[in-house]
Design goal:
By secondary structure, the chain is mainly α. Helix content is 61%, strand content 0%. It has four helices and no strands. The chain has helices at residues 3-19, 40-54, 60-64, 69-82. Helix 1 packs antiparallel against helix 2 and helix 1 packs across helix 4. The longest helix has 17 residues, at 3-19.
Length: 83
């Protein structure tokens, strides 16, 4: 499994915890704000979780610019490749 797939799975896992969803309710195109109702606190929890999981520093504002789960996974993979 590559880093991008790992990032996607971790984001789905955390979305399930934060928003009370099941993994089959979340896909690449699931939008954090419109579909999950994410607020700033949720985004902060997500970025903190992903920083710990992947040992990277994640810009809160850059992460917020990724509206979907798939785009967020792409961003995490990019950060890991830079390391």
């Amino acid at each position: 499994m590559d880093v991008r797939e790992q990032a996607y799975e971790k984001i789905v896992q955390r979305c399930c915890q934060l928003f009370g969803k099941t993994p089959d309710e979340i896909c690449e195109d699931t939008r954090f704000i419109e579909d999950l109702g994410a607020r700033s606190g949720n985004v902060s929890q997500m970025t903190n979780f992903l920083e710990d999981e992947f040992d990277v520093e994640i810009s809160f504002m850059e992460f917020r610019r990724r509206p979907t789960v798939g785009m967020a996974a792409d961003y995490i993979a990019e950060l890991c490749e830079e390391e």
